[in-house]
């Protein structure tokens, strides 16, 4: 049985006098999005974030990777099969639809369908929709001909299905309802409204519509004739899709959890959830570790107990897909998002305030830190610069850097930045055109997260899969852990995810590191989806 998505990896090798502990278990999937029961009876799971499609045996839990990260299908969101068994996938970020034959060969059917999401076959005909504001509902020609527009200007249509009446049923996240239409003509009809943000529909053997609610975590059964509703189960916000294997019902969630819905509201976990990457992390004064995982934000309290969700994509006050994070006080954080914004966020209050990037978004923000004087400093990887924000005013601290990723401050206020493209860590002196970037540590492959611990610099080198510690002058360098599960899981750089609002791109990996008050170093093991605690023994 595949216990983790990061297969064939050597064990972590801590240096003498150091130990490594997993605070969270590795994830088995890169999240779980579209679900479809294949001709072989297995459930095929599309994983947008990991550009992967897996086949799951729901009885044994055995997983097989069907389309791996780095292959021709990028960011698959939903899948279906034609009558010959060929697999068709929508590629959300790239705006494509691809077909994969039984021989493993892939061809692109369309590359001009931004936000391609829901997909379904009906009597040999192929239909998709675009999950975006102003999205379209289309019939595609599997042979590659021009698409036929059925509807347009829809508010975020998602995973759809044909009902026994021959009509196409589609949920709209933006209007919180479910509609149907005869694909050969006629006006759309509203089937159900005031739901829990429906993001997928399928039909059971009795002709009832079953829908996952991403906002409330409910699985609803709706009689399409009477409108009568029944809550089959309530799991957690973040549900994404569903499929039937015979009469058995399975649902997916953003965290990668696959759940079977049983009678009487009972459930059975087929695959446990986990973290999708994770990306950056930070430690609070009480030892709590906070983890930015894109569409989720977790707290890992000291003493164990597992991750606690502090916020997610549909939480009040959500600031956006979170990449970089730094603690700024009790229940207060500064974050960078894929929206290109720097924000201050209070998860418990359900509020955030954009500090910069609201009208002119930054280009691929990653690491963020709070300077001793209170300024918020962030790495803008795409523009090759480091910016500082105070009172809404943005100052460039350094420019001309090669893919800056991580940011940290020494006790004396020196700003340290990892240049992932140049393989070094630099210290920034001054600001603006006259600033200088002085090399502190070089000879690295792809440094990302950095932190200062007890007057020493800690660096995650994702290229070398190592955690390195050195003096702040670059001397006395020590590799304290090797073979870390960070970086590209396959060893090959994944094809970039181009991005689409609100997940602007390109999306990229980032392995963060944070120093805790207990002296531990915490690392986001993005390749396997876990959080590591690296401690000095004795």
From TrEMBL:
Q: Domain SMP-30/Gluconolactonase/LRE-like region: where?
A: 30-247
Q: Which residues form a coiled coil?
A: none
Q: Output the Gene3D superfamilies linked to this UniProt entry.
A: TolB, C-terminal domain
Protein name according to UniProt: SMP-30/gluconolactonase/LRE family protein
Q: Organism's domain of life?
A: Bacteria
**Pfam families found in the cross-reference section:** SGL (PF08450)
Chain residue ranges for the region called Disordered? 1-20
InterPro entries the UniProt entry points to? 6-blade_b-propeller_TolB-like, SGL, Vgb
């Amino acid at each position: 049985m595949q216990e983790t998505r990061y297969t064939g990896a050597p064990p972590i090798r801590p240096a003498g006098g150091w130990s490594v502990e997993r605070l969270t278990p590795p994830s088995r999937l890169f999240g779980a999005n579209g679900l479809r029961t294949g001709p072989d009876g297995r459930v095929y799971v599309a994983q947008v974030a990991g550009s992967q499609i897996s086949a799951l045996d729901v009885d044994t839990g055995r997983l097989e990777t069907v389309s791996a990260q780095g292959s021709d299908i990028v960011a698959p969101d939903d899948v279906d099969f034609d009558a010959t068994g060929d697999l068709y996938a929508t590629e959300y970020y790239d705006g494509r639809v691809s077909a994969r034959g039984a021989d493993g060969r892939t061809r692109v059917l369309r590359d001009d369908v931004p936000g391609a999401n829901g997909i379904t076959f009906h009597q040999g005909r192929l239909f998709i929709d675009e999950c975006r504001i102003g999205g379209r509902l289309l019939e595609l020609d599997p042979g590659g001909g021009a698409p036929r527009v059925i509807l347009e200007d829809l508010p975020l249509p998602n995973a759809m299905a044909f009902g026994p009446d021959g009509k196409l049923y589609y949920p709209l996240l933006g209007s919180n309802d479910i509609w149907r239409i005869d694909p050969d003509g006629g006006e759309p009809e509203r089937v159900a409204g005031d739901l829990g943000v429906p993001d997928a529909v399928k039909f059971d053997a009795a002709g009832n519509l079953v829908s996952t609610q991403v906002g409330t975590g409910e699985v609803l059964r709706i009689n399409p004739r009477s409108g009568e509703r029944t809550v089959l189960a309530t799991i957690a916000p973040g549900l994404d899709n569903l499929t039937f294997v015979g009469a058995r019902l399975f649902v997916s969630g953003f965290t990668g959890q696959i759940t079977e819905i049983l009678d009487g509201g009972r459930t059975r976990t087929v695959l446990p959830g986990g973290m999708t990457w994770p990306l950056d992390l930070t430690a609070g004064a009480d030892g709590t570790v906070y983890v930015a995982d894109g569409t989720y934000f977790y707290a890992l309290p000291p003493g164990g107990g597992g991750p606690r969700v502090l916020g997610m994509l549909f939480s009040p006050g959500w600031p956006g897909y979170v990449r970089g994070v730094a603690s700024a006080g009790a229940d207060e954080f500064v974050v960078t998002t894929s929206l290109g914004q720097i924000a201050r966020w209070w998860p418990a209050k359900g509020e955030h305030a954009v500090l910069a990037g609201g009208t002119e978004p930054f280009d691929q923000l990653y690491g963020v830190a709070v300077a001793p004087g209170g300024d918020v400093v962030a790495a803008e990887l795409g523009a090759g610069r480091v910016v500082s924000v105070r009172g809404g005013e943005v100052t460039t601290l350094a420019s001309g850097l090669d893919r800056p990723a991580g940011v940290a401050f020494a006790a004396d206020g020196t700003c340290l930045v990892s240049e992932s493209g140049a393989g070094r860590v630099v210290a920034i002196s001054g600001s603006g055109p006259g600033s200088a970037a002085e090399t502190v540590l070089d000879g690295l492959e792809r440094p990302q997260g950095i932190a200062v611990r007890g007057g020493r610099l800690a660096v995650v080198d994702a290229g070398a899969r190592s955690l390195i510690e050195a003096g702040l002058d670059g001397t006395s360098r020590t590799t304290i852990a090797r073979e870390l599960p960070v970086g590209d899981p396959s060893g090959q750089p994944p094809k970039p995810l181009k991005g689409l609002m609100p997940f602007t791109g390109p999306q990229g990996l980032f392995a963060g590191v944070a120093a805790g008050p207990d002296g531990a170093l915490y690392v986001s093991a993005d390749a396997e989806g876990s959080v590591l605690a690296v401690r000095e023994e004795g």
